[in-house]
């Protein structure tokens, strides 16, 4: 079988699997967030944290819940890393405490659902930090994202009230009823594939070429499944999903891609059910699907084509690709992980062709909305839908409406702030890092025309790092030594601001929409469930992103790809 055909068949199988579970999972999640009943274990959790799950919250109260819970998570995870050195060896594996700047970066990263790692997991983190700290945040940070998305959907569905539900109930339900059950099943699948699941210590084993190597154990399968399902991305090992302990074979690789995509895509069905019009969900799904499929096809083409005689003779750009998976599977994984806020990798993004690396960058720059992270992809796409409706209203001279709500001055200002905050963080921190004297010294793998970090590839590495951090992705070109006080601090700030500032605007927008009374449809109402609107939405996303980031992309991956 040819490598190209193998990649196409894997992509077809993946689409079929997603289509099979789309409706039942989407309907189930809609029932979870609309049910008035509480499970016994949920009632116990509410009593433990002192929350009243039936109390309705307006958007400021909902936001305070999000920020307070996340702040406690950052503090707890930071302290857990700092005391690792005094924990028993069975919990710490003998590792010392994490340095203050790296502990801050890691705490910010996992609470922000980014999972950027400036450390090697098998050489720095013991069982306590991995399971009690990082794995727990994989669950709850994902649940926070879904909760905020559901709050925005309620803003569209409700009228003449500012109430958006209860954050604590949404958080607990997302964790207990959705993430944990799927993770249990997924972990069993990964164990059956060969992923490890234990609490073993570090073993020294012999190598075929002589010498020894230290190999650590851990609860890898259980953390691997939630890192993908929750679009987190942080790996137990430095090689992430290219490591055979995390991702043993071609089937597990395809299964992990499925886990990354299943909830973000299915949430569009949940959206349609909650607003009472499933065709609206199909329109959002269509926009997400067109972008994801288009970027995946483009990535496969550029990596298979491979400019140059050596790459063509090899059958494609094999550098940095896992031989177990091949170019096609690596291309699908790369676009999937960067179009979502996952950041897991099964190949070396820095070794992709210049255009292939540019696709991973552009995928994140879209705002990771196709289909995006769990929750964050849906609310990001809905904000872009509001922008698209506004543009359509300007073209026909009509007050824009979406799902029976008028898009007025307040709503469009909040939407504009949402789409501007992330580019400001990305371009601002990148400019500072290239302008100052010391940060460019962290560029270790320069493919440009200079050894001081000023080459096109060196610039791409820095741009990629802050794009990944501010968009809560977590993947890296990996030619950048990000474990320095400058990058640990600035990327940590980019992750926190890039996660929670947009949530402020999303929840404020939800509250504004919920207070409105519904606007009846007329002959002039834009039909947002039609293919025409889905096309308009895709066009708006690509144009806005292109206008925002084109100069930066021209200096980095485009210059490298054309050189």
UniProtKB/TrEMBL annotation:
Transmembrane parts of this sequence: 61-80, 132-157, 178-200, 250-270, 282-301, 376-396, 417-436, 491-511, 532-554
Keyword Cell inner membrane: no
Listed name of the protein: Potassium-transporting ATPase potassium-binding subunit
InterPro entries reported for this sequence: KdpA (IPR004623)
Predominant cellular place of this UniProt entry's protein: membrane
Role of this protein: Part of the high-affinity ATP-driven potassium transport (or Kdp) system, which catalyzes the hydrolysis of ATP coupled with the electrogenic transport of potassium into the cytoplasm. This subunit binds the extracellular potassium ions and delivers the ions to the membrane domain of KdpB through an intramembrane tunnel.
Domain of life according to the entry: Bacteria
PANTHER family listed in its UniProt record: POTASSIUM-TRANSPORTING ATPASE A CHAIN, POTASSIUM-TRANSPORTING ATPASE POTASSIUM-BINDING SUBUNIT
Alphabetically ordered keywords of this record: Cell membrane, Ion transport, Membrane, Potassium, Potassium transport, Transmembrane, Transmembrane helix, Transport
Database matches in Pfam families: KdpA (PF03814)
Location relative to the cell: Cell membrane
Assembly and binders: The system is composed of three essential subunits: KdpA, KdpB and KdpC.
Residues in coiled coil: none
């Amino acid at each position: 079988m040819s490598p190209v055909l193998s990649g196409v068949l894997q992509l077809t199988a993946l689409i079929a699997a997603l289509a099979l579970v789309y409706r039942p999972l989407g309907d189930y999640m809609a029932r979870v967030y609309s049910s008035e009943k509480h499970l016994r274990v949920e009632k116990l959790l509410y009593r433990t944290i002192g929350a009243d799950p039936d109390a309705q919250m307006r958007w400021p109260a909902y936001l305070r819940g999000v920020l307070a819970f996340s702040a406690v998570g950052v503090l707890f995870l930071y302290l857990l890393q700092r005391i690792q050195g005094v924990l028993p060896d069975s919990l710490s594996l003998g590792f010392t405490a994490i340095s203050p700047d790296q502990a801050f970066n890691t705490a910010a990263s996992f609470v922000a659902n980014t999972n950027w790692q400036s450390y090697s997991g098998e050489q720095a983190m013991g069982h306590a930090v991995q399971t009690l700290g990082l794995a727990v945040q994989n669950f709850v940070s994902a649940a926070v994202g879904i909760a905020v998305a559901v709050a925005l959907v309620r803003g569209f569905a409700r009228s003449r009230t500012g109430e958006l539900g209860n954050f604590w109930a949404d958080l607990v339900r997302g964790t207990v009823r959705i993430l944990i059950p799927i993770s249990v099943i997924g972990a069993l699948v990964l164990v059956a594939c060969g992923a490890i699941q234990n609490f073993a210590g570090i073993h020294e084993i012999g190598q075929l070429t002589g010498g020894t190597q230290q190999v650590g154990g851990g609860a890898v399968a259980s953390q691997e499944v939630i890192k993908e399902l929750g679009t987190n991305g942080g790996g137990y090992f430095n090689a992430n999903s290219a490591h055979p302990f995390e991702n043993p074979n071609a089937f597990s690789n395809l299964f992990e891609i499925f886990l990354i995509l299943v909830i973000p895509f299915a949430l569009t069905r949940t959206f349609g059910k909650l607003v009472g019009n499933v065709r609206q969900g199909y329109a959002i799904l269509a926009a997400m699907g067109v972008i994801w499929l288009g970027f995946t096809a483009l990535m496969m083409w550029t990596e298979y084509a491979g400019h140059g005689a050596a790459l063509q003779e090899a059958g494609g750009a094999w550098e940095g690709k896992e031989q177990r998976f091949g170019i096609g599977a690596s291309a699908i994984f790369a676009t999937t992980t960067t179009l979502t806020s996952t950041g897991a990798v099964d190949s070396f993004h820095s070794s992709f062709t210049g255009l292939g690396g540019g696709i991973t960058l552009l995928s994140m720059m879209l705002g990771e909305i196709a289909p995006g992270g769990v929750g964050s992809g849906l609310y990001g796409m809905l904000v872009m839908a509001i922008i698209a409706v506004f543009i359509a209203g300007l073209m026909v001279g009509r007050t824009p409406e979406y799902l029976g709500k008028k898009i007025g001055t307040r709503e469009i200002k909040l939407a504009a702030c949402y789409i501007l905050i992330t580019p400001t963080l990305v371009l601002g921190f990148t400019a500072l890092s290239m302008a100052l004297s010391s940060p460019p010294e962290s560029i270790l793998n320069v493919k440009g025309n200079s050894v001081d970090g000023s080459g096109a590839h060196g610039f791409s590495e820095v741009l990629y790092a802050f794009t990944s951090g501010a968009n809560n992705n977590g993947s890296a070109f990996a030619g950048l030594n990000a474990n320095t006080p400058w990058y640990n601090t600035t990327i940590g700030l980019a992750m926190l601001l890039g996660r929670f500032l947009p949530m402020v605007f999303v929840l404020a927008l939800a509250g504004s929409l919920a207070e409105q009374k519904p606007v009846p449809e007329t002959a002039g109402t834009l039909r947002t469930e039609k293919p025409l609107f889905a096309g308009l939405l895709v066009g708006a996303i690509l144009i806005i992103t292109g206008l925002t980031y084109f100069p930066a992309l021209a200096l980095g991956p485009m210059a490298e790809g054309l050189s």
